[in-house]
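hey
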């Protein structure tokens, strides 16, 4: 690995000004589980690495039923699923956080880093899209927000500008009669990259029988994590039944345009997209009906 300077920022402003001064040659470090691997393998280069894990805003996890979840961008995955209130309110986020590497990785890796690394196969991004998360950014021009669905722009690329960092992920409060799920397919039980991943969020009517609102998103079927906006909108008003899930699954298989690579052919991925949409919808509905469904 090439030598680089390492600095630890104490505030958001300090991190932003250090990064802005060096531009492309500077990199942010949270857990380092992507960055260190990439620097070591020469996939990325940096003269300066700025650790942002000592910035209180980025390491705080604030939850209340009324305000929802404010998740600092550097909070490691284990803090999410070890928080009983957060785990109950955001089960799809837990589904994602519990399968990012093994527990050693989860003690370092952050959801913020997963998003900023912007892999099309990242396991947390479909859940962030399904929960309609708002990303709070801080940069030399000040603060701004962008929806998780619009954050990634190409493989490994995103909307962050020079000197800009992700500070917080804001999850809307848990809505009554709502539930969500994330599932991925990998060829073995653990520690692999998704061949396809899918997240579903649903809100049911008070009787728990009809879908009022839904959001769907897929991983590893496009250059960026893919929101299935039209298919999710079509679910509104439909009964929460296997037939409804199967119709959404068929539409998802038609809508995606994946590539073939060593993990699977495009046809296989299209098939998996349908299977996972059907399964995540079924589990999201069960959770919305108050049932406990453990996915991992
Ligand atoms: C053994 C192993 C297994 C893995 N398994 C999985 C898996 O199953 N699923 C999966 O999705 N990923 C997996 N990963 C990848 C990685 O662990 C995740 O992407 C992780 O969530 C990244 O978080 P981090 O905090 O370590 O990010 P870092 O490595 O610190 O950063 C990742 C990238 O984002 C940038 N960045 C980080 N935070 C910010 C910020 N706040 N603002 C601006 N830029 C920022 C960094 O500069 C870097 O480019 C695995 C990695 C390893 C080594």
């Amino acid at each position: 690995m090439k030598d680089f300077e390492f600095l630890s920022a104490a505030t958001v402003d300090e991190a932003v000004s250090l990064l802005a001064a060096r531009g492309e040659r500077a990199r942010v470090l949270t857990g380092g589980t992507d960055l260190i691997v990439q620097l070591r393998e020469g996939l990325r280069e940096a003269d300066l690495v700025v650790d942002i894990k000592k910035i209180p805003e980025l390491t705080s996890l604030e939850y209340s039923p009324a305000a929802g979840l404010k998740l600092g961008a550097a909070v490691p995955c284990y803090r999410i699923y070890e928080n009983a209130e957060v785990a109950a309110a955001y089960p799809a986020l837990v589904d994602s956080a519990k399968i990012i590497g093994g527990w050693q990785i989860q003690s370092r890796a952050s959801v913020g880093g997963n998003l900023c690394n912007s892999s099309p196969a990242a396991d947390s991004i479909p859940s962030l899209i399904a929960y309609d998360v708002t990303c709070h950014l801080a940069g030399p021009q000040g603060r701004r927000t962008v929806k998780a669905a619009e954050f990634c722009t190409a493989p490994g690329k995103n909307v962050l500008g020079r000197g800009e960092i992700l500070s917080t992920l804001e999850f809307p409060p848990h809505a009554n009669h709502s539930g969500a799920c994330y599932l991925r397919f990998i060829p073995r039980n653990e520690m692999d990259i998704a061949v396809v991943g899918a997240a579903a969020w649903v809100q049911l009517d008070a009787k728990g029988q009809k879908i009022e609102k839904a959001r769907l998103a897929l991983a590893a079927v496009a250059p960026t994590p893919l929101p299935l906006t039209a298919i999710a909108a079509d679910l509104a008003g439909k009964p929460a039944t296997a037939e409804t899930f199967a119709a959404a699954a068929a539409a998802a298989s038609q809508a995606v345009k994946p590539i073939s690579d060593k993990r699977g052919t495009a046809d296989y991925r299209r098939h998996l997209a349908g299977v996972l949409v059907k399964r995540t919808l079924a589990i999201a509905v069960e959770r919305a009906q108050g049932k406990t469904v453990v996915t991992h």
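Residues 78 and 106 are 6 Å apart (CA to CA). Residues 266-288 form the longest helix (23 residues).
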